């Protein structure tokens, strides 16, 4: 069967891999329909992902149909999947937080992914929903932001500010809005901010021309946002999250910076902040994103930049790498 493989830095092609003859024991055989590519895949293609060894079949954002192996799922049922694994032994797994499993192996990162015609997946990692294939393929990337909203214990009375309106930030904005909060979207691109507005942000701050501090103070009547979510990964925004958040507020970091960040640690104590990391997503996050998409609360067509055949994947990744602003989300269509 056909698969898309990244062989090394800036090199990828469609290859032939052995057919799957049915599902693996205890698993479900899925026919892959759409696989999303995100910043992680772009980083892999650039040779910049330390968790990836080449050659690697990418793909962790999946829309598929059930072929065989599940007693409770009729063949033809449309589904999406969770691409993570859990070891059940590490501290995170024992605490009931397998999203942060120390030995997690995400599909397409530490092991081969879903960019193939068929995949075999444990039943527990399959989610069905009343959604289109494009929407199903967006569930996993949106869960990463939904998990950040969950980590921030966001409730409807909160004002939440989100740094970054790329794929991950949009998920956080949409999930915060779905929880009924006041959401402030922060970016340097008016086009991205406009999509954030459609995802539910009431306030838009373009820091290319507006002063972040005065805008946040104005919107929050001088208090600062209750929750700051950082989804960019720059030292300046890591620091600004702590500086701008309200006293006794919560700060959630999804990305991470390439370089160490220096902080005014006095603020941690003076404001008595809760500062949290957020990694991957939990089953509840998948269910919440599915409810949000089923409610039509996300601008799906704005968030998907292109749908391409596997034969164009390498060229598209090269174009994306040369011009990062060109795409937000690319989906690769299999079995069309
Ligand atoms: Zn992704
Ligand atoms: Zn574990």
TrEMBL record:
A Pfam family this chain is assigned to: ADH_N
Keyword Cytoplasm listed: no
Domain of life: Bacteria
Annotated ranges, domain Alcohol dehydrogenase-like N-terminal: 25-127
InterPro entries membership: ADH-like_C, ADH-like_N, GroES-like_sf, NAD(P)-bd_dom_sf, Zn_alcohol_dh
Alcohol dehydrogenase-like C-terminal domain span: 167-294
Keyword line: Oxidoreductase
Oxidoreductase as UniProt keyword: yes
PANTHER family cross-referenced by the UniProt entry: L-THREONINE 3-DEHYDROGENASE
Stated name of the protein: Threonine dehydrogenase-like Zn-dependent dehydrogenase
């Amino acid at each position: 069967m056909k698969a898309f493989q990244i062989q090394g830095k800036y090199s990828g092609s469609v290859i032939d891999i052995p057919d799957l003859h049915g599902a693996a024991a205890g698993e479900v055989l899925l026919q892959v329909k759409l696989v999303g590519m995100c910043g992680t895949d772009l980083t892999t293609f650039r040779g910049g992902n330390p968790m990836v060894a080449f050659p690697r079949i990418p793909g962790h954002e999946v829309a598929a149909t059930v072929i065989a192996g599940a007693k409770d799922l009729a063949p033809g049922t449309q589904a999406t999947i969770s691409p993570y694994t859990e070891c059940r032994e590490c501290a995170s797994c024992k605490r009931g937080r397998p999203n942060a499993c120390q030995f997690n192996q995400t599909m397409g990162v530490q092991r081969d992914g879903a960019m193939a015609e068929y995949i075999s997946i444990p039943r527990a990692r399959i989610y069905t929903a009343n959604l289109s294939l494009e929407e199903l393929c967006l569930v996993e990337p949106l869960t990463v932001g939904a998990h950040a909203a969950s980590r921030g214990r966001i409730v409807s009375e909160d004002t939440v500010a989100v740094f970054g309106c790329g794929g991950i930030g949009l998920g956080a904005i949409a999930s915060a809005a779905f929880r009924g909060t006041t959401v402030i979207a922060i970016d340097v691109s008016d086009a991205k901010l406009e999509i954030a507005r459609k995802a539910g942000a009431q306030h838009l701050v373009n820091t290319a021309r507006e002063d972040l501090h005065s805008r946040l103070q104005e919107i929050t009547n001088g208090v600062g946002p209750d929750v700051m979510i950082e989804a960019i990964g720059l030292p300046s925004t890591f620091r600004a999250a702590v500086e701008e958040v309200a006293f006794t507020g919560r700060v959630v970091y999804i990305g991470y910076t390439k370089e160490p960040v220096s902080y005014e640690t006095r603020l941690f104590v003076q404001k008595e902040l809760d500062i949290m990391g957020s990694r991957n997503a939990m089953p509840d996050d998948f269910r919440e994103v599915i409810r949000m998409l089923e409610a039509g609360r996300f601008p799906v067509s704005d968030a998907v930049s292109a749908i391409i055949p596997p034969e164009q994947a390498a060229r598209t990744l090269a174009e994306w790498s040369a011009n990062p602003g060109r795409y937000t989300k690319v989906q690769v269509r299999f079995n069309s």
